[in-house]
Amino acid sequence: MERLEIQRTEKEKLRKLEAKDLERRNEELEELYLLEACFPEAEKLKRDSRLLSQWKHYIQCNGSPDPSISQEINTFISLWKEETNETFEAVTAKSKLVLNLIEKLKLILLETPSYDLQEKNIIQYQGSILELQELLHLKFNIATEILLRQASTLADLDSGNMEKVIRDENVTLYVWANLKKNPRYRSIRFSETQIGFEIPRILATSDIALRLLHTRYDHVTPLGLVPTASQEHTSTVTYFGKDEVKSVEAAVSKDLQKEYKEQENESNSVHEEETKVDEQGGIEGQTSSVQEEPEATKYELEMKLLSETVSAAQLLLLENASEKPYFSEENEVDLCQFTALGGVHHLDILELPPQCKPRKGWMIVEILKEGLQKYTYPPETAEDFETENTFPPIEVMLEVHENVIFFENPMVARWDAEGKHWKTDGISNVSYKSEDRLITFSLDTFGPVTLIQDAHVNMPYQSWELRPLDVNEVLLTVTTVFTDIQIQIKENLCMLASIKLNNKKHSSILEEKWMTPVSFIIALKEAGLNIFPTGHSHFYVVINYKVRMNLSKFNVLDI
């Protein structure tokens, strides 16, 4: 009798928990159907927003081209190519417009749904981006050559060499011209910075110039692929509507009816045996048990149906999931696992061009037809020298940009122009001082370098919370191992509310700036605050999957 009473109490608790869980699932289903009904309206609002943006650009009449119109952007590129003898300051001023056009084109590719993007438009936009990037870098090279022609007139009185630093919000130029060729002058430091080089003797006695062009943007890494409508169609998971869900449940329930009846018969036989054991007080317990057992069995079958549906959806996702990238070359950087931060440092050893010479009130200069030339170091044919001793690696000191957060010591990668990818070989003696934000390393050959960090350093999350603030306004808090990030979301805009690093508030230039979701995600990633998984993230993030609990243990869960 006591055992039956305990069983009845446990089953009563289980029945209440089942009722609450069923109510919760019904509410979630209703919410899902509501969201599905709102999806077309949301897409319409996004489309209207894009059209409004085009209209605003049209009525501004500020002379800037519409990058989505090929005639306008091609005219802009052609006219800028015709402009010659632009100073570095003039190019940096023009670069603001160019970078804005590139950003607009990238946002069009990212924000426009695949069914609204034709393949010819994708090719057009990406082609315009590449043309603008190449032309901008060419203009910086020409401006550097013009500056180096005047190196002798800009020479420092103490050292006799030319040193120049030109700063801008997007670009900073550090250039040093070796005019005196003093073999003892091998340590180069730019004034008011910790940036510099330690050059070998052979460079200290050569007609060369060292240039560090630090761009806050990355125009070196190849553009990512943009999925077309046909590609997205093949990898889309089918979501069932309300009627389809009911039809699937009905079909599956027919297959489970036999199992249900068998379990019901077994439960009835068990109760009959229990009644024989205790004839006096067991009849009441058996009656209530017979009434509750079918409900428990029915719930178990519903859970089985739900489990099979979820498993089928997960299997479909795995079948359509992207494969892990394969790399044929050793030391190649996996851009799905790592991300470049702080822009690109273009390191170049340049041949010093002919200098300006005053003649009877005129400045005479020889202009080389081939333009600015790079100095090959180490030389391709160095048979007569001991390469390791004569052409040692060059030590480089760089400052890490203050607006970029590294949660671990940054790694250095160099650009391989032949393979068109970032690599980590040819770099040694890497040292990072986090307090001074100074990184030092030795480089075998000069070229573009960047600092990289694990893109998933903040994954998986420790916790996240979504808290309502007002109508159509919420606060999203994401807690990771290294940081607490609060994001305010209002209507269709996002804003970084606050950041905490090691439980201390950290100021960021992104705070209090409202942005569209795509622009906001890009800005956070560029600042080193990547909390957004991609289609490849499951290859690089270790996740502790929850173990499914038995139905018999369900009654211990606190709803």
From TrEMBL:
| GO function terms (MF aspect) | beta-tubulin binding; microtubule binding
Q: Which domain of life is it from?
A: Eukaryota
Chain residue ranges for the region called Disordered = 259-296
Q: Which residues lie in Basic and acidic residues bias regions?
A: 259-279
List the residue ranges forming a coiled coil, or say none: none
Q: Domain named IC97/Casc1 N-terminal: which ranges?
A: 2-184
Please provide one cellular component term from the Gene Ontology annotations of this protein.
axoneme
Give the family from UniProt. Belongs to the DNAI7 family.
Q: What is this protein called?
A: Dynein axonemal intermediate chain 7
Q: Which organism is it from?
A: Delphinapterus leucas (Beluga whale)
Name of the gene encoding the protein in the UniProt record: CASC1
